Amino acid sequence: MADFFKLFSKTATGSNTAVYTVPTANEGAVPPVLPTTAIVKSIRLANVSGGAVTTTVTILDYDASSPLEIELFKSSLADGATQEVLSQPVSLEQQDAIKIVGNGVKIAVSLMEIT
User: Fold this and answer.
1) How far apart, in Å, are the Cα atoms of 72 and each of 13, 57, 59, 81, 97?
2) What is the CATH classification number for the domain harbouring 107?
């Protein structure tokens, strides 16, 4: 079992921008992709767009027969504003994803992958 600390960052382009997706297990691949769980410690937003932007952060949960979209945050961020989305860590399983909508908003996701 291995633990990896990672930081992902992107700038949203307005549409549903994928920030991070938990790897899907494929033990037949070279190198093999082991089953992975991600513990998300922080999701931080920063509006650098030059104006207020309505921003939405969601998690796509693929455990169900059809993906379930869970809204973590939705609000208007003023220009120059920052916001921490999580108050507690979130656990994600393979194929689960974090997405953002909000043109010009930067997002940083700090997490640990456990394989």
Assistant:
1) 19, 6, 7, 18, 12
2) 2.60.120.340
